């Protein structure tokens, strides 16, 4: 089974909470704070594995969650970091953000790694908040939450040469004769329902990877049949071998087939349509009038394609010439990365703890409501029943600039400031 697209949910590990702890030893009745830091959460890392050729594993497993960091402990014991989760994918995998469908990364190199989500940072223990004036802090920092995202994994095959043409023109036969690939071959349409790859290794030429792309039909660029899924697999190829059934035994007109396939390429991508092609007139063993080939060759060359070969994959006549020409042309065609425009790239928002301030007007006093992820994190780190902790709370509000912002908004003496369920009066 060939799976080339899959949706999965991933989440990095949460950071462990810092500990609130104090030394309790014999003869040390007032030991200082010794709460340790929490461990960092595990990250989500994607790694290219050349031993994998499909996304089949992601058909059955749709959720990947990294390990959380452990909480800190007493005696300044630090929590253990969560283990990173390494997800192996085949070379040629593109990762997209699900909602926008924009590209996050193109994993197209051997052993390439990409950290997609970083684990949450562990919180500091109360030992880190001790100062000469705050010697017994009764609060610690919670661990940062992990990140989560739904992504689309999309496989686009990595091949130097793509075999192109209508169904049943001889692409699979050529691949089977020149490589060790074993594609399914028979005399009926759409025998190939998944791309097949093979390495062409012939004496005297540099080896190259060739892909048999399933037959493309008219309307493929608009999604007829499985057209879009098939077309995307030739985006990475440097050279196309366009095979046409010159015999016409199925009632098809060879030149019309050639034009239709190129029209589908152009509709899908002008850059793909402009890629170098070798045109191969196959099944010449069934051709009784050589003028048919000469007429076909003349029409094709008038369209600007100069390299046209006769071939019979069944008898191997002309096969070596086609392969040698492909190897020769590849020497002059540079290896290029898959071109992804800036508009197609996903740029994640920087992970910040933010807040917003709104005003609820009252008859005597107004209420200034502060909300957001910053508020949630701050309150989780504060013990509102402890004076030292409250002093730390107000210091953070000042350092964050919230108090200055409240004054700019016109807050008055005895107005109320509310953060989630916690309220206090503002005093000038």
Automatic annotation (TrEMBL):
E.C. numbers: 3.6.5.-
Main location: cytoplasm
Residue ranges of every copy of the Obg domain listed in the record: 1-158
Alphabetized Pfam families for the sequence: DUF1967, GTP1_OBG, MMR_HSR1
Subcellular location: Cytoplasm
Cofactor: Mg(2+)
Every OBG-type G domain range: 159-331
Residues reported to bind GTP: 165-172, 190-194, 212-215, 282-285, 312-314
Cited PANTHER family: DEVELOPMENTALLY REGULATED GTP-BINDING PROTEIN-RELATED, MITOCHONDRIAL RIBOSOME-ASSOCIATED GTPASE 2
Family: Belongs to the TRAFAC class OBG-HflX-like GTPase superfamily. OBG GTPase family.
Name of the protein: GTPase Obg
Native source species: Clostridium weizhouense
Taxonomic lineage from the root: Bacteria, Bacillati, Bacillota, Clostridia, Eubacteriales
Encoding gene (name): obgE
